[in-house]
Amino acid sequence: MGADVVSRFYDSMGNTLDYVYELDGDLLTIWAGAKGGPAYFRGSLSDDGRMLDGAWVYPGEGGYASTMTRR
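^ thats the sequence. predicted structure below, dont judge the formating
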């Protein structure tokens, strides 16, 4: 297994947001911050790879559902 896939986002307020990605079969996990941290997205890819359905989870029972569709 290789190095982690990471990204960094800079917003207009000067914040820097780091993400770490992991794909295990059809399950995608994206950590906001460090891998294994309490804020993350977890979702499953459809069989045809066109849809990703999951949810963001935040500490304190926050979060939201998310469905993404490739066009």
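Residues 38 and 59 are 6 Å apart (CA to CA).
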